[in-house]
């Protein structure tokens, strides 16, 4: 692996709840330009990994470095403004705020306006610019002044992801962003995500996903997890040629997945 | 005026006429030209709910009786008198209602008020609004200096400490020598604190230095006094001084009796008389110093006016009146005297508020508790009644065995002196009671 | 020695009255997550009905020593007010706390004036009925027998409630509904009927408490409002929704008040709030509380 | 257990709808004109009733920052009204200075000192626990006011002499002329100024972060919202507004008394806010006006005015959660959609 710009590195992290071992000695590294998918059956520890990487939970052992600084348990609110963002598996939005306001929350954090209590938010050029650009990137412009409560589920999921992108993160962790979206436009959503990350300057993406079709299509590297352990960490093509790993992840006798 | 105002006025008039009994049909007196038909309106502010309800209600009944009697004799200066009654609650609400009485009900004068908080707030307001305001209660002489020093329109009630001074003197006279351990269970506000400190000051003045075994402050309205009693029991005082006078006093005496305190401790209740009908013989011992302030209903030498009032009150309400009735009637009587004095000076025009205010001090006025007058510093001089409780009566509650009367001229601070200095220097001509052998307390 | 015993006993007595106020409050919160600000007003209603019924009964020749029975009947009868109240509160079950608190706050205003309308403004009391049972003096401590009986009744209430909640079928149904409304419904529990029963049981505990305690004190209009704050102190200390918490909380508040009164009377009431704050800061869910902050 | 008030359609209108903006401006101007002319038109008594309205309007603007925008229900907010009144009274008593501006500074200073520690502590909680904690603090202060007689004057409270306004002493005016005249206009300006400031705060990035923390604290954290910090600031700001309201109430009564801090008064503050509708910025101000007029009117008709207030509150909570302004909003909404179809 080239090491031209190491963004996120997890060294020997594990997370125990009493004697349940959610994560067991996982190492992980993420560099600019990578699109790493994390796959594995339910309960393999994928979400716990994301929670530890994004500072929501303190790792029981090990270290997490983001752009060189130790961020173990630093807390999501700090990470949000220094380039590490995440979206949630279940659409996590503000029911009584409009799409515009939701994106503006991230925009004002990004622009360090958090404590300004007198600036008229909506009249603020830069904030408005970000809101327009992100809404555009996620095709949410027609719904800018609609409350999240009134949005259909798929739209809410997009808003959840869009509000994370609006933080202009260097790295973004997505937890099944296309869950609940009809198979037809799953790829549409992924295309939107990729183009948005280009326009908003996202340097690396981590995707937790079940749909192997998406994984094989977009990932540069794939990590497989099982029972809290990392069982594989290979570039995409090598991953799908390794029968043993594929059988664990997809289960026995799966159709041979042709990689595009 | 909006619909609701008119309905209140009509209701008040009917109530006043009804309470006064037969209106003498002597036809119209020759009413001077100016009187026309506009009635003279008196605003009343008194508590009607909660622990002070019994006290406020008694005052209202007395002033209603007084007004009915006045109207029967042609009212004041020929004008019929009307009452507009509002409830005294928290200072904020009561001040708003005070302004309402002046601005909306256009009353000529306002009487009433019992809480020291409201009277503190009312003092500057009365002066600024140039309205003759006569307080039934709520004045502590210690608190006087905070209020407007030389009021023009405000007339205060007798200082609340006067009862404490009288009760303390009686305690010194009777038990002086034997007082070793004393306990205080007083109401937790201005009145309660000044009364207790007065008692201690007078004991010190007569060279009595008891040790204070328990000093408790009871929040108004607390009814569960079991812990207070337990602490008193543990402290084993031989004298208990309490300035409580709300509905918590009978509860206190009842629980004290149940805990056996009334057997060996002497009690001093400077204003206990206000709860007389609730101090039942079952739990109230004899020989307890009981203060009735400016009115004792069963005073054998009481005036004809007093007997007539008591008879009316007992027939109508099946209860016995206490000093709040006298305070209310006294204010009404003084106001009438003031107006009529001002009228006699300038007969053809109705006197302004300031003229009435100037005319009030000095008039000797007959009230339910005897003759009284208003001093130039707007504090009244009246007669105060106290005595030792007895069971020898045909009521189910205690009354006074011997009635001890003192004039406020002796036991109330004169205008120019500061309260605590006066208390220190005053010569009350009382000898300290010699200890009289073993102290046998008759069973209740 | 006797003085310490004296004070402790007074503290226990105060604790007994506090438990009778808070038992109903805890039960309703435990099962329905409704914090009933009007618990004091319901307690006051029981007290007033108790006074009226007892005065009427004594006037019609009831032998004085039977007055506790009359109070019991008064408490049970006035407890039925729970049924219409539950119907009223049912409309805000799914609304956020703010609205449930506000609805019970409106009940305080309504009850205060209803009681004023029917019973008048002056404080009411049963003059010295407790003396019909005389006093007990043991080791130099004299206390009215009725107070001891009251402590016994409070203990009986506590044991009875614990037995009911843990051992009886309908008690288990209550606790199941308390744990999770959805699973309760899934297990064919008619949640609506359970709520009516729990709420009425809660109010009846309050009215019974009010009626039984009233002979030792007096009933005033402000009673409902004054009691709320101390009742909150007890359930915050003990833990929201737990019956054991109500018992322990009541004991702590009762005894601490008595001791504070003896040691330094000035801080008697302040001590309670200081403890409540300490607990809220140190362990918000209280000693036995289940609900997390 | 984040129990933010979200299940009801919270229609805090988004600040951007320009068409709506004009409507808002008209309402504002008519509010100013009406209140500016009132002293000439309405009788003295009702004007003196408007002074407590101004006090409650300011207090509730602060309170709704915490409740409507922050989703935190405080049941002890009357504490800060009392802090304001007592700070002003203590200043006048000890220093003899009676300038209203100094009283306001003293009130704000005292509120800051008292509110900051409570805010830091209380911002950890939401829902029932936040309510109970604030109730406990309120009653602790109430007991302190009653008990420490020599500092606070105990039950009688402390007198609050008539202040000078901008240094001018209105010696000649009597109580009503002073209250219905200069003091009335001073308070009107104060309400407009503090209202404008609160409008800016609520429409600022800080305001948006506060609303985000109300609707979904976890998601807000991930979008860079310091949830505890925004709540603590909201608590302190609401305390300052409460203290300013307290000074006005104190001057109106001429006394600072412990009753101001009693928990039932905190309950009335919540009542007014819900009556007016806490989803709307102007809602609580409407609620204060309606409450004061309702209470005054009811108390002339009957002694049992608390009963009728209780019934009004119960009906409100059950049938009209949006309050008066919520009712208007849905009425306008219905008219507009019927018109549009």
UniProtKB/TrEMBL annotation, chain A:
TM helices/strands, residue ranges: none
Alphabetized Pfam families for the sequence: ABC_tran
Molecular function terms from GO: ATP binding
Originating organism: Noviherbaspirillum album
Coiled-coil region: none
Domain of life: Bacteria
Key words, A-Z: ATP-binding, Cell membrane, Membrane, Nucleotide-binding, Transport
PANTHER family: AMINO ACID ABC TRANSPORTER ATP-BINDING PROTEIN (PTHR45772:SF7), CONSERVED COMPONENT OF ABC TRANSPORTER FOR NATURAL AMINO ACIDS-RELATED (PTHR45772)
Residue intervals of the ABC transporter domain: 8-252
UniProt name for this protein: ATP-binding cassette domain-containing protein
From TrEMBL, chain C:
Record's keyword terms, sorted: Amino-acid transport, Cell membrane, Membrane, Transmembrane, Transmembrane helix, Transport
Family per similarity comment: Belongs to the binding-protein-dependent transport system permease family. LivHM subfamily.
This protein's record includes keyword ATP-binding: no
Upper taxonomic lineage: Bacteria, Pseudomonadati, Pseudomonadota, Betaproteobacteria, Burkholderiales
Residues spanning the membrane: 6-29, 41-59, 65-86, 98-119, 146-165, 194-214, 270-289
Protein's cellular compartments: Cell membrane
Pfam families: BPD_transp_2
Xref: InterPro entries: ABC_transp_permease, BCAA_transport_permease
Keyword Isomerase: no
Protein name per its UniProtKB record: Branched-chain amino acid ABC transporter permease
Membrane topology: Multi-pass membrane protein
Top-level division of the source organism's lineage: Bacteria
UniProtKB/TrEMBL annotation, chain D:
Keyword Cell membrane: yes
Ranges annotated as spanning the membrane: 21-39, 45-67, 74-93, 99-121, 128-145, 183-202, 232-256, 268-293, 305-324
Subcellular location(s) of the protein: Cell membrane
Main location group: membrane
Membrane topology label: Multi-pass membrane protein
Domain of life of the organism encoding this protein: Bacteria
CDD domains in the record: TM_PBP1_LivM_like
Signal peptide segment: none
InterPro entries, A to Z: ABC_transp_permease, LivM-like
Keyword tags: Cell membrane, Membrane, Transmembrane, Transmembrane helix
Record Pfam families: BPD_transp_2
Protein name: Branched-chain amino acid ABC transporter permease
Species assigned in the record: Noviherbaspirillum album
């Amino acid at each position: 692996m080239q090491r031209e710009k190491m963004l996120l590195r997890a060294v020997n992290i594990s997370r125990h709840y009493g004697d349940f071992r959610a994560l067991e000695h996982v190492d992980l590294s993420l560099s600019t330009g990578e699109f790493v998918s994390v796959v594995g059956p339910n309960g393999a520890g994928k979400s716990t990994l994301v929670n530890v990487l994004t500072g929501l939970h303190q790792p029981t052992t090990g270290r997490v470095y983001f752009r060189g600084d130790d961020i173990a348990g630093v807390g999501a609110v700090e990470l949000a403004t220094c380039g590490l963002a995440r979206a949630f598996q279940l659409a996590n939005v503000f029911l009584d705020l409009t799409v515009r306001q939701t994106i503006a929350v991230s925009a004002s954090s990004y622009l360090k306006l958090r404590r300004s209590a007198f600036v008229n938010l909506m009249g603020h050029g830069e904030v408005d610019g970000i809101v327009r650009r992100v809404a555009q990137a996620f095709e949410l412009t027609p719904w800018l002044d609609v409350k999240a409560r009134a949005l259909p589920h798929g739209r809410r999921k997009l808003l959840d992801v869009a509000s994370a992108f609006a933080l202009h993160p260097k790295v973004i962790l997505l937890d099944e962003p296309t869950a609940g979206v009809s198979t037809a436009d799953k790829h549409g959503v992924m295309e939107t995500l990729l183009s948005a990350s280009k326009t908003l300057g996202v340097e690396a993406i981590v995707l937790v996903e079940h749909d192997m079709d998406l994984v094989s299509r977009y990932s540069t590297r794939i990590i497989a997890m099982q029972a809290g352990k990392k069982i594989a960490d290979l570039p995409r093509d090598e991953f799908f040629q390794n029968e043993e790993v594929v059988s664990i992840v997809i289960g026995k006798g799966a159709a041979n997945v042709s990689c595009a | 005026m909006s619909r609701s105002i008119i309905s209140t006025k009509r209701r008040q008039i009917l109530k006043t006429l009804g309470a006064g009994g037969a209106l003498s049909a002597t036809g119209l007196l020759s009413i001077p030209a100016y009187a026309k038909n506009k009635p003279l309106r008196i605003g009343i502010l008194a508590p009607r709910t909660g622990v002070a309800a019994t006290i406020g209600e008694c005052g209202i009944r007395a002033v209603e009786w007084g007004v009915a009697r006045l109207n029967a004799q042609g009212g004041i200066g020929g004008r019929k008198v009307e009452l507009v009654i509002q409830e005294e609650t928290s200072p904020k609400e009561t001040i708003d209602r005070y302004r309402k009485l002046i601005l909306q009900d256009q009353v000529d004068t306002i009487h009433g008020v019992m809480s020291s908080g409201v009277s503190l707030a009312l003092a500057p307001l009365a002066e600024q609004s140039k309205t003759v305001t006569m307080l039934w209660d709520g004045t502590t002489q210690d608190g006087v200096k905070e209020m407007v020093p030389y009021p023009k329109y405000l007339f205060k009630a007798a200082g609340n400490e006067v009862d404490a001074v009288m009760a303390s003197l009686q305690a010194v006279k009777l038990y002086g020598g034997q007082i070793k351990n004393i306990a205080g269970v007083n109401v937790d506000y201005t009145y309660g604190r000044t009364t207790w400190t007065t008692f201690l000051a007078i004991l010190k003045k007569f060279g009595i230095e008891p040790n204070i075994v328990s000093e408790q402050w009871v929040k108004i309205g607390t009814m569960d006094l079991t812990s207070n009693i337990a602490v008193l029991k543990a402290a084993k005082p031989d004298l208990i001084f309490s300035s409580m006078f709300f509905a918590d006093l009978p509860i206190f005496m009842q629980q004290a009796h149940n805990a056996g305190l009334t057997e060996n401790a002497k009690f001093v209740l400077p204003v206990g008389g206000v709860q007389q009908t609730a101090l039942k013989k079952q739990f109230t011992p004899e020989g307890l110093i009981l203060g009735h302030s400016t009115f004792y209903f069963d005073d054998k030498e009481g005036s004809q006016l007093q007997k007539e009032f008591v008879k009316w009150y007992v027939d109508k309400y099946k209860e016995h009146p206490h000093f709040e009735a006298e305070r209310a009637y006294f204010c009404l009587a003084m106001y009438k005297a003031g107006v009529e004095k001002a009228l006699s000076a300038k007969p053809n025009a109705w006197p302004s508020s300031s003229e009435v205010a100037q005319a009030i001090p000095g008039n000797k006025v007959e009230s339910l508790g005897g003759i009284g007058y208003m001093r130039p510093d707007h504090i009244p001089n009246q007669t105060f009644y106290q005595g030792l409780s007895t069971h020898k009566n045909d009521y189910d509650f205690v009354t006074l065995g011997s009635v001890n009367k003192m004039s406020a001229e002796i036991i109330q601070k004169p205008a120019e002196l500061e309260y605590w200095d006066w208390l220190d220097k005053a010569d009350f001509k009382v000898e300290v009671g010699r200890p009289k052998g073993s102290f046998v307390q008759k069973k209740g | 020695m006797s003085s310490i015993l004296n004070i402790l006993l007074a503290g226990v007595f105060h604790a007994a009255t506090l438990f009778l106020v808070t038992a109903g409050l805890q039960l309703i919160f435990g099962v329905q997550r409704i914090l009933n600000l009007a618990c004091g007003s319901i307690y006051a209603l029981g007290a007033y009905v108790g006074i009226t019924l007892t005065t009427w009964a004594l006037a019609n020749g009831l032998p004085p020593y039977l007055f506790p029975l009359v109070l019991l009947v008064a408490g049970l009868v006035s407890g039925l007010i729970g049924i219409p109240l539950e119907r009223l509160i049912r409309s805000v079950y799914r609304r956020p706390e703010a609205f449930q608190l506000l609805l019970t706050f409106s009940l305080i205003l309504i009850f205060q004036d209803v009681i004023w309308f029917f019973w008048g403004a002056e404080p009411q009391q049963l003059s010295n009925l407790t003396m019909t049972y005389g006093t007990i003096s043991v080791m130099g401590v004299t206390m009215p027998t009725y107070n001891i009986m009251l402590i016994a009744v409070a203990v009986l209430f506590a044991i009875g409630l614990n037995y009911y909640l843990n051992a009886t079928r309908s008690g288990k149904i209550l606790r199941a509904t308390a744990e999770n409304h959805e699973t309760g419904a899934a297990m064919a529990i008619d949640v609506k009927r359970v709520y009516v029963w729990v709420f009425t049981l809660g109010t009846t505990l309050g009215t019974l408490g009010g009626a039984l305690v009233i002979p030792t004190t007096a009933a005033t209009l402000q009673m409902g409002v004054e009691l709320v704050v101390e009742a909150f102190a007890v359930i915050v200390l003990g833990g929201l929704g737990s019956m054991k918490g109500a018992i322990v909380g009541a004991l702590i508040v009762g005894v601490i008040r008595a001791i504070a009164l003896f040691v330094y009377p000035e801080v008697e009431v302040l001590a309670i709030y200081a403890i409540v704050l300490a607990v809220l800061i140190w362990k918000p869910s209280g000693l036995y509380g289940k609900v997390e902050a | 257990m984040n129990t933010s008030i979200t299940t009801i359609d919270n229609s805090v209108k988004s600040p951007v709808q320009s068409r709506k903006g004009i409507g808002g401006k008209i309402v504002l101007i008519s509010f100013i004109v009406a209140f500016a002319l009132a002293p000439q038109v309405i009788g003295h008594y009702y004007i003196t009733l408007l002074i407590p309205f101004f006090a409650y309007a300011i207090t509730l603007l602060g309170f709704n920052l915490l409740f409507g925008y922050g989703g935190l229900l405080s049941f002890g907010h009357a504490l800060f009204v009392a802090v304001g009144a007592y700070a002003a009274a203590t200043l006048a008593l000890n220093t003899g200075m009676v300038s209203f501006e100094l009283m306001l500074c003293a009130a704000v200073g005292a509120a800051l000192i008292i509110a900051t520690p409570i805010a830091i502590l209380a911002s950890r909680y939401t829902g029932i626990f936040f309510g109970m904690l604030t109730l406990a603090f309120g009653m602790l202060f109430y007991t302190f006011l009653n008990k420490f007689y020599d500092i606070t004057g105990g039950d009688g409270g402390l007198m609050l002499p008539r202040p000078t306004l901008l240094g001018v002493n209105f010696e000649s005016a009597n109580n009503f002329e002073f209250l219905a005249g200069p003091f009335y206009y001073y308070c009107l300006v104060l309400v407009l100024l503090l209202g404008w400031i609160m409008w800016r705060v609520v429409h600022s990035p800080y305001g948006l972060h506060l609303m985000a923390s109300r609707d979904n604290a976890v998601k807000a954290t991930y979008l860079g919202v310091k949830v505890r910090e925004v709540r603590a600031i909201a608590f302190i700001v609401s305390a300052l507004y409460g203290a300013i309201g307290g000074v006005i109430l104190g001057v109106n009564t001429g006394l600072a008394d412990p009753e101001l801090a009693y928990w039932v008064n905190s309950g009335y503050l919540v009542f007014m806010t819900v009556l007016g509708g806490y989803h709307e910025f102007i809602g609580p101000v409407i609620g204060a006006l309606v409450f004061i007029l309702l209470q005054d009117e009811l108390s002339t008709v009957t002694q049992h005015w608390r009963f009728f207030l209780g019934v009004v509150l119960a009906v409100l909570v059950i049938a009209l959660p949006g309050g008066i302004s919520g009712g208007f909003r849905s009425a306008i909404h219905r008219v507009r959609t019927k018109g549009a179809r």
